Amino acid sequence: MILPIYLYGHPVLRKVTKDISLDYPGLKPLLDNMFETLYNADGVGLAAPQIGLEDRILVVDMTSLSDREPSFKDFKRVFINAYITEQDGAEEAVEEGCLSIPDIHEQTLRKNRIRISYLDENLQPHDEVFEGYKARVIQHEYDHLEGIMFVDRISGIRKQMIRSKLNKIMKGEVRCHYKVKIAPGK
Predict the structure, then answer these.
(1) 186 pLDDT higher than 70
(2) Is residue 20 part of a domain?
(3) Which end of the chain has fewer CB atoms < 10 Å from its terminal CB, N or C?
(4) Which candidate in 106, 141, 146, 173 is catalytic?
(5) Does the global pTM surpass 0.90?
(6) What are phi and psi of 92, to 5 degrees?
(7) Residue 141 catalytic?
């Protein structure tokens, strides 16, 4: 089932998520719905807050980018109860966008190497290192689990320059080809 994606300004996007229990009801259908929602929106990552949940879950599927980078071909992952334990390497500025902030793309600084511990969709533990664009996508989605959005990482001047666009998104004055949900009372 395709779920609506919560837009910038919705309070759930600013909440720090909570770990889920190992007997989380309906986990498989939820993950299926998250991937279906991700594909419908033409994204590469989606975090639970973006569909209105305060659960520490994110999904990534970079296979759509495999024509640009062959190592993305089978890079489809579920990260449950994820925690980044290390960030290092060079800090790089790369343009990012977000399904919750449609039509805005900005240069965002991130470290190019991370270590993350998480459970997969079968609740098996992992501790892995990711580099480059994989690390960037994971960090972007991970930020959602911490109540952070990529526009929080851009310069104050750039944020001021896009303020009117952000205000329009908060009011729902944006066109998306996917289902969205705006903040209550907007």
Answers:
(1) no
(2) yes
(3) N
(4) 141
(5) yes
(6) -120, 145
(7) yes
